[in-house]
Amino acid sequence: MLPWVYWLQPILILLSSVFWTWGENCPATCLCPDPHTVDCSGRGLTRLPEEIPLDVRRLLLADNWIPRIPSDFLVLYSDLVYLDLRNNSLSYIEPGTLSTSSRLVFLDLGSNNLTEIPKGTFGESRSLIKLRLGNNPYLSMVSEDAFLGLTSLRELELERNALSTLKVGALSQLPSLRV
């Protein structure tokens, strides 16, 4: 055998084992393009999929019919950085549901049926940088303390909703807000 083949064999074995495990823990109706991304977008889901890998970092659930997020859902996913729930059927998010994710940086709840954002919805999600709440046509109430603790939030989208007023106090608690 040629000498270079001896050092190439371990690399090939390692690569094949990595590619073999990709998608191994992927929910049946979803795609997992890399070990830390689960893409369940546009799958007609009416609830959150089961068997999501615990080390998921990007969870894409857009364009489904998901009506609610269980209050303990994010407790298990401590590595989650990116959560896309846009264009679903969410009408209410229980206070504290999103507060357990300490690493969440991006959250898209746009194009849903949210009616209110009560105090404590996001808890102390200090790492959250971008929050999309736009295109919620029934969103008519945002608590003055809804964004309390979001000290890193830079971008907040609230366009195209039913808000007629928004207390300045809700935004004054966002020291990093730019957009």
From TrEMBL:
Domain LRRNT: 25-58
Xref: SUPFAM superfamilies: L domain-like
Subcellular location: Cell membrane
Mode of membrane association: Single-pass membrane protein
Lineage top rank: taxon: Eukaryota
UniProt xrefs under InterPro entries: KCNMA1_auxiliary, Leu-rich_rpt, Leu-rich_rpt_typical-subtyp, LRR_dom_sf, LRRNT
Signal sequence segment: 1-23
Keywords: Cell membrane, Disulfide bond, Ion channel, Ion transport, Leucine-rich repeat, Membrane, Repeat, Signal, Transmembrane, Transmembrane helix, Transport
PANTHER family, per database record: GH08155P, LEUCINE-RICH REPEAT-CONTAINING PROTEIN 38
Protein name, UniProt field: LRRNT domain-containing protein
Species lineage: Eukaryota, Metazoa, Chordata, Craniata, Vertebrata
